[in-house]
Amino acid sequence: MPVSGETERREGGPAVRILVTGATGYVGGRLVPLLLAQGHEVRTTTSRAGREQPWWGDRVETVVMDALDGDEVMAACEGMDAVYYLIHGMGGDDFSTTDRTAATHMARAVRAHGTERVVYLSGVVPPVPTEELSEHITSRLEVEQILSDLPATVLVLRAAVLLGSGSTSFEIIRQISQRMPVHTVPSWMDSKVQPIAVVDVLEALVGALSYKGDSRHFDVGGPDVLRYGALLEAFTEHAGLLRPQVTVPLLPTALVGSLAGSLTDVPTSVVEALVESLRHDMVAAEEDFRSVLLPAEHRLVGLDEAFRRALAPAAPDPETADPMGPLPQDPVWAGGGDERPALARVVDAVKQVLPDS
User: Fold this and answer.
1) Mind listing the pLDDT tens digit for each residue in 263-305?
2) pLDDT digits (tens, 9 = 90+) for 26-60
3) CA nearest to 130, candidates 122, 141, 120
4) Strands (E), 124-210
5) Which helix (H) or strand (E) holds 118?
6) Which helix (H) or strand (E) is 17 found in, with range?
7) CA-wise closest residue to 257 among 187, 186, 196, 177
8) Whole-angstrom distance between the N-terminal and C-terminal Cα of the chain?
9) What is the pTM of this model?
10) How far is residue 351's CA from residue 356's CA, in Å, rounded to a whole number?
């Protein structure tokens, strides 16, 4: 269906050879089965030989690839028609340098092999001056720029909060809600967010394979726009929790990030990187991805349904399981984990930020 003079979505299309990087991660692990179901030939990467493969591992070719090793990236891209770039060096001492190096290696390999299409899952970029962006968003934007200089068709999907069991954002919401009897919300965290269900992101990623048009980015968001405090309230209601909210002024970003990291089983460096972005509205600037990348009959998942499906118990067979729910390859910290009391976690977090206290 034409969307502009030169952009339209193609239904179907021939099978292609696809490299999925980050295939053992949250989104990649759910994307691969969809690509296989469409008859595509899939190659995935692993950081080390002999690593246990996901439940679909016997249906793909797997190669060892360290994104920081240019030769391994070059070899992984050989013979591929398309690449899903699902690598983020979020967290750590210098993740922006890691992101830059990895993207540069991928760009060089794509150019050398004449790969025709690159699809990159990035984050929503708020409409603020570049110097006000968090390091996390700045790094993702730099990766976009590195990849977008390629002669290949490069599609960037920018998402805010992904909803689904095992998603980093969802697990932070779930674990903070479960472990904090009172939600203390910083006054500066009154920004708006447009979460999106992972199944809708997956559908858009698959649709990017048949997109016809120039390289560009798409903001991808669900049907609900709300403030972060309201998002926490919505989760607690669906989880059957009673959690009063208290707005607290003058809380430093570093303290909030460290407290949130200590309260959850998600790696602290990842939580701190995400918290930096909460000062700004994370809302889609446009929504044409619905008509360009999604099937005509597709219905976006609303917040209520997303929480209900994400909180459902694990299905016995991953082959037929809802991608919104738990899957075997999800991180060990998904769905809970360490049951250490919340007070002990808070004390540890304060000590990390204020070591002399």
Assistant:
1) 778 777 677 667 777 778 899 999 999 999 999 999 999 999 9
2) 999 999 999 999 999 999 999 888 788 899 999 99
3) 141
4) 153-159, 162-163, 183-186, 192-193, 196-197
5) strand 117-123
6) strand 17-20
7) 186
8) 62
9) 0.88
10) 7
